[in-house]
Amino acid sequence: MDTRKRILPNILITGTPGVGKSTISRLLSERTKFAWREVSKLAEEYNCLDEYDPEYNCPFLNEDKLLDIMEGMVAKGGNIVDYHGCDFFPERWFDGVFVIRTNNTSLYDRLSARGYTGKKLEDNIQCEIFETLLEEAQSSYKPEIVQELQNNTEDQLHSNINTIVEWIERWKEENI
Ligand code: DAT
Protein backbone atom coordinates (compact mmCIF):
# COMPACT_ATOMS: atom_id res chain seq x y z
CA MET A 1 0.00 0.00 0.00
CA ASP A 2 1.43 3.34 -1.07
CA THR A 3 0.58 6.05 1.48
CA ARG A 4 0.69 8.71 -1.28
CA LYS A 5 -2.43 7.19 -2.81
CA ARG A 6 -4.54 7.76 0.31
CA ILE A 7 -7.08 10.50 -0.11
CA LEU A 8 -8.15 10.32 3.53
CA PRO A 9 -5.99 9.48 6.57
CA ASN A 10 -6.08 6.25 8.55
CA ILE A 11 -6.28 6.68 12.31
CA LEU A 12 -5.37 4.23 15.04
CA ILE A 13 -7.21 4.55 18.36
CA THR A 14 -5.36 2.51 20.96
CA GLY A 15 -5.10 2.14 24.75
CA THR A 16 -5.83 -0.18 27.65
CA PRO A 17 -9.27 -1.86 27.64
CA GLY A 18 -11.85 0.48 29.20
CA VAL A 19 -10.17 3.81 28.37
CA GLY A 20 -12.92 4.69 25.88
CA LYS A 21 -11.62 3.55 22.47
CA SER A 22 -14.99 2.26 21.22
CA THR A 23 -16.87 5.28 22.52
CA ILE A 24 -14.46 7.67 20.79
CA SER A 25 -14.30 5.58 17.59
CA ARG A 26 -18.10 5.37 17.32
CA LEU A 27 -18.64 9.11 17.86
CA LEU A 28 -15.78 9.92 15.51
CA SER A 29 -17.14 7.64 12.80
CA GLU A 30 -20.58 9.27 13.11
CA ARG A 31 -19.00 12.73 12.74
CA THR A 32 -16.56 11.94 9.93
CA LYS A 33 -18.20 8.99 8.12
CA PHE A 34 -14.85 7.20 8.39
CA ALA A 35 -15.17 3.41 8.73
CA TRP A 36 -14.86 2.13 12.31
CA ARG A 37 -12.72 -1.03 12.27
CA GLU A 38 -13.16 -2.75 15.62
CA VAL A 39 -10.27 -5.19 15.47
CA SER A 40 -11.66 -7.55 18.16
CA LYS A 41 -14.92 -7.86 16.22
CA LEU A 42 -13.13 -8.32 12.88
CA ALA A 43 -10.99 -11.07 14.45
CA GLU A 44 -14.12 -12.93 15.52
CA GLU A 45 -16.01 -12.31 12.30
CA TYR A 46 -13.14 -13.55 10.08
CA ASN A 47 -12.10 -16.47 12.35
CA CYS A 48 -8.74 -15.02 13.34
CA LEU A 49 -8.88 -16.35 16.89
CA ASP A 50 -6.77 -19.43 17.55
CA GLU A 51 -6.53 -21.73 20.56
CA TYR A 52 -7.27 -20.46 24.07
CA ASP A 53 -4.65 -18.76 26.27
CA PRO A 54 -5.23 -20.39 29.68
CA GLU A 55 -3.40 -17.65 31.61
CA TYR A 56 -5.42 -14.72 30.32
CA ASN A 57 -8.61 -16.61 29.70
CA CYS A 58 -8.90 -15.28 26.17
CA PRO A 59 -8.11 -16.64 22.69
CA PHE A 60 -4.83 -15.97 20.82
CA LEU A 61 -5.09 -13.60 17.87
CA ASN A 62 -3.83 -14.90 14.53
CA GLU A 63 -2.19 -11.60 13.60
CA ASP A 64 -0.99 -12.54 10.09
CA LYS A 65 -4.43 -13.69 9.01
CA LEU A 66 -6.06 -10.57 10.43
CA LEU A 67 -3.55 -8.24 8.74
CA ASP A 68 -4.15 -9.93 5.37
CA ILE A 69 -7.88 -9.34 5.76
CA MET A 70 -7.51 -5.73 6.91
CA GLU A 71 -4.97 -4.71 4.23
CA GLY A 72 -7.66 -4.17 1.59
CA MET A 73 -9.93 -2.35 4.05
CA VAL A 74 -7.34 0.28 4.95
CA ALA A 75 -5.84 0.78 1.47
CA LYS A 76 -7.84 3.85 0.48
CA GLY A 77 -7.76 5.61 3.87
CA GLY A 78 -10.73 6.92 5.84
CA ASN A 79 -10.48 4.28 8.58
CA ILE A 80 -10.60 4.41 12.36
CA VAL A 81 -8.85 1.28 13.63
CA ASP A 82 -9.70 0.51 17.28
CA TYR A 83 -7.58 -1.98 19.23
CA HIS A 84 -5.88 -2.49 22.61
CA GLY A 85 -2.58 -3.29 20.88
CA CYS A 86 -0.63 -1.49 18.21
CA ASP A 87 2.79 -3.05 17.58
CA PHE A 88 1.81 -5.66 15.00
CA PHE A 89 0.16 -3.37 12.42
CA PRO A 90 2.37 -2.21 9.53
CA GLU A 91 3.67 1.27 10.39
CA ARG A 92 2.72 2.53 6.91
CA TRP A 93 -0.99 1.97 7.59
CA PHE A 94 -1.44 4.95 9.92
CA ASP A 95 -1.19 8.71 9.55
CA GLY A 96 -2.23 9.43 13.15
CA VAL A 97 -2.02 7.31 16.30
CA PHE A 98 -4.08 8.38 19.32
CA VAL A 99 -3.34 6.74 22.68
CA ILE A 100 -6.37 7.12 24.95
CA ARG A 101 -5.64 7.42 28.69
CA THR A 102 -7.79 7.18 31.82
CA ASN A 103 -6.94 7.66 35.50
CA ASN A 104 -6.84 4.58 37.74
CA THR A 105 -10.01 5.18 39.71
CA SER A 106 -12.18 5.81 36.64
CA LEU A 107 -10.65 2.85 34.84
CA TYR A 108 -11.19 0.60 37.85
CA ASP A 109 -14.87 1.59 38.01
CA ARG A 110 -15.38 1.10 34.25
CA LEU A 111 -13.73 -2.33 34.18
CA SER A 112 -15.55 -3.51 37.33
CA ALA A 113 -18.83 -2.41 35.73
CA ARG A 114 -17.85 -4.53 32.72
CA GLY A 115 -17.56 -7.53 35.05
CA TYR A 116 -13.75 -7.73 35.19
CA THR A 117 -12.42 -9.12 38.47
CA GLY A 118 -9.20 -10.63 39.92
CA LYS A 119 -6.16 -11.01 37.67
CA LYS A 120 -7.88 -9.66 34.57
CA LEU A 121 -8.89 -6.46 36.37
CA GLU A 122 -5.47 -6.05 38.03
CA ASP A 123 -3.53 -6.70 34.80
CA ASN A 124 -5.48 -4.06 32.93
CA ILE A 125 -5.07 -1.45 35.69
CA GLN A 126 -1.30 -2.21 35.77
CA CYS A 127 -1.18 -1.90 31.99
CA GLU A 128 -2.52 1.65 32.30
CA ILE A 129 -0.28 2.55 35.27
CA PHE A 130 2.83 1.36 33.42
CA GLU A 131 1.79 3.24 30.26
CA THR A 132 2.25 0.02 28.30
CA LEU A 133 0.23 1.10 25.27
CA LEU A 134 1.79 4.56 25.16
CA GLU A 135 5.25 3.00 25.10
CA GLU A 136 4.15 0.44 22.52
CA ALA A 137 2.82 3.23 20.28
CA GLN A 138 5.93 5.37 20.76
CA SER A 139 8.22 2.49 19.87
CA SER A 140 6.14 1.41 16.83
CA TYR A 141 5.39 4.77 15.13
CA LYS A 142 7.17 8.05 14.48
CA PRO A 143 6.84 10.28 17.57
CA GLU A 144 5.28 13.11 15.56
CA ILE A 145 2.23 11.02 14.68
CA VAL A 146 1.58 9.70 18.23
CA GLN A 147 -0.71 11.77 20.46
CA GLU A 148 -1.91 11.01 24.00
CA LEU A 149 -5.48 12.00 24.95
CA GLN A 150 -6.83 12.03 28.53
CA ASN A 151 -10.36 10.59 28.60
CA ASN A 152 -11.75 10.68 32.16
CA THR A 153 -14.81 12.91 31.83
CA GLU A 154 -17.65 13.63 29.37
CA ASP A 155 -16.07 17.05 28.68
CA GLN A 156 -12.78 15.40 27.78
CA LEU A 157 -14.63 12.92 25.58
CA HIS A 158 -16.11 15.71 23.46
CA SER A 159 -12.91 17.67 23.38
CA ASN A 160 -11.04 14.53 22.23
CA ILE A 161 -13.49 14.07 19.35
CA ASN A 162 -12.97 17.70 18.34
CA THR A 163 -9.19 17.33 18.57
CA ILE A 164 -9.22 14.35 16.20
CA VAL A 165 -11.71 15.96 13.78
CA GLU A 166 -9.46 19.05 13.64
CA TRP A 167 -6.43 16.81 13.11
CA ILE A 168 -8.22 15.18 10.13
CA GLU A 169 -9.03 18.58 8.63
CA ARG A 170 -5.37 19.61 8.94
CA TRP A 171 -4.23 16.34 7.35
CA LYS A 172 -6.51 16.99 4.39
CA GLU A 173 -5.19 20.54 3.92
CA GLU A 174 -1.61 19.31 4.02
CA ASN A 175 -2.00 16.17 1.93
CA ILE A 176 -4.61 16.72 -0.77
P1 DAT B 1 -12.71 0.57 25.33
O1 DAT B 1 -13.28 0.49 23.93
O2 DAT B 1 -11.40 1.29 25.37
O3 DAT B 1 -12.65 -0.75 26.03
P2 DAT B 1 -15.25 1.85 25.98
O4 DAT B 1 -15.42 2.84 24.89
O5 DAT B 1 -16.03 0.58 25.89
O6 DAT B 1 -13.70 1.50 26.19
O7 DAT B 1 -15.56 2.62 27.35
C1 DAT B 1 -15.60 1.94 28.59
C2 DAT B 1 -16.70 2.56 29.46
O8 DAT B 1 -16.33 3.88 29.81
C3 DAT B 1 -18.04 2.67 28.75
O9 DAT B 1 -19.04 2.38 29.71
C4 DAT B 1 -18.14 4.11 28.34
C5 DAT B 1 -17.32 4.82 29.39
N1 DAT B 1 -16.61 6.02 28.93
C6 DAT B 1 -15.85 6.14 27.82
N2 DAT B 1 -15.32 7.36 27.73
C7 DAT B 1 -15.74 8.05 28.82
C8 DAT B 1 -15.54 9.39 29.30
N3 DAT B 1 -14.76 10.27 28.67
N4 DAT B 1 -16.15 9.75 30.45
C9 DAT B 1 -16.93 8.88 31.12
N5 DAT B 1 -17.17 7.60 30.73
C10 DAT B 1 -16.59 7.20 29.59
Automatic annotation (TrEMBL):
EC top class named in words: transferase
Catalytic activity field: ATP + H2O = ADP + phosphate + H(+); AMP + ATP = 2 ADP
Annotated region (LID), positions in chain: 113-123
Domain of life from the UniProt record: Eukaryota
Entry's Gene Ontology BP terms: ribosomal small subunit biogenesis; rRNA processing
Statement: the UniProt record of this protein carries the keyword rRNA processing: yes
Positions of region (NMPbind): 38-61
Record InterPro entries: Adenyl_kinase_AK6, P-loop_NTPase
Keyword presence, rRNA processing: yes
EC number: 2.7.4.3
GO molecular function: AMP kinase activity; ATP binding; ATP hydrolysis activity
GO cellular component, one term: cytoplasm
PANTHER family with a match to the protein in the record: ADENYLATE KINASE ISOENZYME 6, POS9-ACTIVATING FACTOR FAP7-RELATED
Family per similarity comment: Belongs to the adenylate kinase family. AK6 subfamily.
Function: Broad-specificity nucleoside monophosphate (NMP) kinase that catalyzes the reversible transfer of the terminal phosphate group between nucleoside triphosphates and monophosphates. Has also ATPase activity. Involved in the late cytoplasmic maturation steps of the 40S ribosomal particles, specifically 18S rRNA maturation. While NMP activity is not required for ribosome maturation, ATPase activity is. Associates transiently with small ribosomal subunit protein uS11. ATP hydrolysis breaks the interaction with uS11.
Known partners and oligomeric status: Monomer and homodimer. Interacts with small ribosomal subunit protein uS11. Not a structural component of 43S pre-ribosomes, but transiently interacts with them by binding to uS11.
Protein name (database record): Adenylate kinase isoenzyme 6 homolog
